[in-house]
């Protein structure tokens, strides 16, 4: 089936029809339309494409628009079962649109070192459901029957840049009509992105203002003469603004990823066709790069097949779309997967029927063998039933003993529960607002309590061999012996604010916990000052012995 790749830009819509697979095929037809950015205009363009090409095609769409949001951020390295919630929580703090109103995907970019801490870097790509529905409506009204991909046009460039030596990065500067994209790839994976508003129409506006031309005349002058002597002064202003934004982007990238610098830059998009634009921009960028590599560093991004540069993304959407970010609703994706499964099912059915014919010749033989095996299994099962009856009788005799052991364990758990609740009530009522508790851990394997000294007075009473047997001494000795069953406990927390004030607050916590009644020998096991989001934080861990609260 023929493939149709549609590139929806900011000022034009381009399409290409391709018959074949990656690297092997034929361009059937292609076309370009001026585009206002209105969904009604898009529907008219798609209608015309259907009239020319028909609707029985597999359609993939790439979109250049501010409606598609791309964000790169980092999260701590987490287990897979915690990853989804962490990703959703992190991105919800960065975008204004609620996630439930968006279609989005996360791409894991790998680990990075952030201030000495290993973190996972993530690329978020999302579009509001309303915008995706508008595009789907235009597709459906046009009559296309097989819509399989909606993606950001930036991802198509990853298939066009050559694979480097895994040490350097490659940048693509897409100078569109109303928007320019700066995309940096490492090992053919998009790892840095920035959209800026200085684009091809900025040069048209400069000509209108400086040379007092109408829009149509300025557009024609730009396309025909470009950076000639007459227009050089006017066009230099937006050129300097564009090159400045590109240099700043490269500078930020090199600071964040010093180990994989940008060593090659490709320029593409409608703005790249302005006469003299490429040489002027390359000359400006080379001021910041190694001039010995000038001929190798900056080049025009060319398609891998013999087509015009402007149809590069349309070709990628047709011939090499596997693995691209897909922003279609889940129900549409499911339909595409179902079609793929159906295709493979048809192929598999032929293979299965062939196998069944071969194996059917041996079925009768195996049925006889199965009957014999069945009789043997029946005999074994009868023996197992007899053993089960005997086992059940023995189990009934021991169940009472096991129940008593369970009750003892249950009572021990209840003690810890009540102790925990009492401790939480006290802490929530007394701790200041700038102190945040992260973890309360009761001793399980006596790892905590072995490092905490016992109450000296109680220990002395427990070991005393004084023959006096008055009631006060006996009660004190029993209390000391009861402390043998105390629990060790760890308390982890954070104190925000000035370091000196945090140290003072920590000492106040120790005094309060020591006075509360059932914690004693409270000690600071660990403390560390950290800088979290520009704010000083004292992380601490306390250990103590905890009195058991009986029910």
Describe this structure in words.
The chain has 551 residues and is of the alpha+beta class. The protein folds into 3 domains: 1-155 and 306-328, Nucleotidyltransferase, domain 5, CATH 3.30.420; 161-302, 2-Layer Sandwich (Nucleotidyltransferase, domain 5), CATH 3.30.420.40; 413-546, Alpha-Beta Plaits, CATH 3.30.70. It is 46% helix and 27% strand. The strands form 4 sheets. The chain has a 5-stranded mixed sheet with strand order 3-2-1-4-8, with helices on both faces. It has a 5-stranded mixed sheet with strand order 11-10-9-12-13. It has a 4-stranded antiparallel sheet with strand order 14-15-17-16, covered by helices on one side. It is flat. The termini are far apart.
How are the SSEs placed, and which strands pair?
Layout: E1 3-8, E2 12-21, E3 24-34, H1 39-53, E4 58-63, E5 68-76, H2 80-92, E6 102-114, E7 117-128, H3 129-142, E8 146-152, H4 154-157, E9 169-175, E10 180-186, E11 189-196, H5 200-211, H6 215-224, H7 232-256, E12 262-268, H8 277-286, H9 294-297, E13 298-300, H10 312-319, H11 330-360, H12 363-430, E14 435-442, H13 456-463, H14 471-482, E15 487-496, H15 499-515, E16 519-532, E17 535-546
Helix pairs in contact: 1-3, 5-6, 5-7, 7-8, 13-14
Keywords for this structure?
551 residues, alpha+beta, Nucleotidyltransferase, domain 5, Alpha-Beta Plaits, 5-stranded mixed beta sheet, 15 helices, 46% helix
């Amino acid at each position: 089936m023929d493939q149709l790749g549609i590139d929806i830009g900011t000022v034009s819509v381009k399409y290409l029809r391709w018959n074949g697979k990656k690297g092997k095929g034929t361009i059937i037809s292609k076309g370009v339309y001026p585009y206002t950015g209105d969904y009604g205009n898009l529907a008219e363009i798609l209608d015309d494409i259907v009239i020319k090409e028909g609707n029985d095609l597999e359609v993939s769409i790439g979109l250049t628009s501010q409606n598609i949001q791309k964000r790169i951020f980092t999260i701590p390295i987490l287990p897979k079962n915690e990853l989804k919630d962490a990703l959703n929580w992190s991105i919800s703090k960065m975008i204004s649109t609620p996630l439930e109103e968006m279609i989005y995907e996360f791409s894991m970019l790998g680990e990075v070192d952030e201030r000495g801490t290993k973190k996972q870097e993530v690329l978020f790509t999302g579009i509001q459901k309303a915008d995706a529905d508008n595009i789907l409506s235009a597709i459906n009204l046009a009559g296309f029957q097989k819509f399989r991909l909606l993606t950001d046009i930036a991802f198509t460039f990853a298939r066009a840049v050559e694979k480097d030596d895994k040490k350097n990065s490659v940048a693509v500067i897409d100078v569109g009509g109303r928007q320019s994209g700066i995309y940096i790839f490492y090992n053919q994976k998009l790892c840095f992105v920035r959209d800026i508003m200085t684009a091809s129409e900025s040069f048209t506006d400069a000509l209108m203002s400086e040379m007092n031309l109408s829009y149509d005349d300025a557009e024609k002058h730009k396309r025909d003469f470009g950076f000639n002597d007459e227009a050089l002064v006017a066009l230099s202003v937006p050129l300097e603004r564009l090159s400045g934004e590109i240099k700043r982007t490269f500078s930020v990238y090199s600071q964040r990823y010093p180990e994989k610098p940008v060593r090659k830059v490709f320029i593409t998009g409608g703005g790249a066709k302005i006469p003299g634009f490429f040489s002027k921009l390359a000359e400006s960028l080379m001021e910041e790069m190694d001039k010995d590599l000038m001929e190798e560093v900056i080049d025009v991004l060319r398609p891998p097949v013999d087509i015009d540069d402007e149809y590069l993304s349309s070709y990628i959407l047709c011939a090499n779309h596997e693995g691209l970010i897909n922003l279609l609703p889940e129900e549409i994706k499911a339909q595409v997967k179902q079609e793929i499964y159906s295709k493979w099912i048809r192929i598999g059915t032929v293979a299965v029927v062939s196998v069944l014919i071969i194996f059917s010749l041996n079925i009768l033989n195996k049925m006889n063998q199965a009957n014999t095996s069945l009789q043997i299994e029946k005999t074994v099962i009868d023996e197992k039933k007899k053993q089960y009856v005997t086992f059940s009788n023995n189990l009934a005799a021991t169940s009472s003993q096991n129940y008593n052991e369970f009750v003892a364990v249950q009572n021990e758990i209840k003690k810890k529960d009540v102790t925990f609740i009492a401790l939480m009530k006290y802490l929530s009522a007394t701790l200041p607002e700038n102190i945040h508790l992260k973890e309360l851990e009761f001793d399980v394997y006596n790892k905590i309590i072995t490092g905490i000294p016992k109450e000296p007075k109680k220990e002395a009473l427990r070991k005393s061999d004084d023959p006096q047997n008055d009631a006060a001494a006996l009660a004190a000795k029993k209390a000391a012996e009861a402390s043998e069953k105390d629990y060790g406990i760890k308390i982890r927390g954070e104190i925000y604010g000035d370091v000196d004030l945090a140290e003072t607050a920590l000492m106040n916590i120790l005094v309060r916990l020591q006075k509360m009644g059932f914690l004693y020998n409270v000690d600071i096991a660990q403390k560390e000052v950290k800088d979290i989001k520009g704010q000083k934080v004292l992380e601490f861990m306390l250990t103590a012995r905890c009195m058991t609260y009986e029910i």
